[in-house]
What we know:
This protein is α+β, with helices and mostly antiparallel strands.
Amino acid sequence: MCRTLLILALLLGLTQVTSAYVTRDVPLADGFDIPVGKNGKSYYKARGVRPNGHLGEDWNGTGGGDTDLGDPIFAAADGVVTFAQDYRLGWGNVVIVRSAYLENGNTKFVDSLYGHLLNFNVKVGQVVKRGQIIAKMGNNRGMYSAHLHFEMRKNINVGMFRSSFPRDWSIYWSPSDFVADRGTCPGGGRIASVPVNTYPDSPPPIIASTKLYTPTQNISTAKARGEIVTGGRAIPTSPLRRTYASADPTTSQSTRTVSATKASTRPVAVGPPNPRQSTPTDKQKLPARRSVFKVDRFEDMKVLGYE
C-alpha cells in the first residue's frame, strides 16, 4: 500500500513539473546552417569546441580584425527565441534560439546561442525562420576583435548558467558537425510543441570543472583544413575537434578512458610550484601568486584568461 502511494505521489509530482512548462507551437526545422556567410562574405572557424574548454565555435571574417563588425547574423534554423539580452561581462549581447527537429521519428530540441553581438532585432517568444537576420556581428564593446561565438546545446536547461552544468559532450554539440549532419531534416512544415521556459531563474549549484586551453587557428590553416564558410554552408569536417581525440564524441569509451589516464599524468602549468614539493635555491624565485578573481554569473571569459 505504501509503495503504491509513493508511486502515485511521484507520478503526481512529475505531472506537476511537466505542466509547469509553457510551450509554443513552432515549425519543425527543415535543416540547419552555420549562421554566417549568407551575405556572400567568407568567414573561418578561428576556434572550435573542446570539453572543459571553449564550448562553442568562434567565426571570424577572413578580413581579420573588425572588418566583419556589423555583418549580419542569421538564424541557423527555424525556431523560437528563448533569450535575448545584453548579458554584459564577457558575453555582451546574446540571443538563444530553440529549434525542434525530427530525427529517427523522434522530435528533439537544440538551443543555438549567438554571443558578442553588436545588436539584435528579435525578442523572447518570437518565432524566427532559417536564414532570417536576427543580429549583427559584434565585439562586446571592443573587448575582442569582432567575431561570432556560436554554441549548440543538447540540454535546453542551461541558459546562461553554463558553470552549473557539465562542460562536455553530454551538453554540447560541435556546431560544424551538427550542421553538416543535419543540413536537411525531415518533417519541415509540421508543427511541434516547444517548451520555452526551461531556464532556471537563479544559478543552480555550480559543477566544478578543469578548464582546458582550446587551440586556435589562423586564416591560412583554416583554408588548408577547409574550415571556410561562404554562402552559409559548413564543410562537413571538423579538423579542430579531431586534433584532440580524447575529446572526440565518436571516440570509443575505452579510448577516452585511456586518453584521460594519459592526460592526467601530464604536468599542467596552473600556477606557482608547491614549495613543499621542491626547495628552490637562493637564486631561484617563485612566481608571484595571482589573486583569485571570482565571478558569480559567468566563468568562461577571455578577459579572465579562461578562454
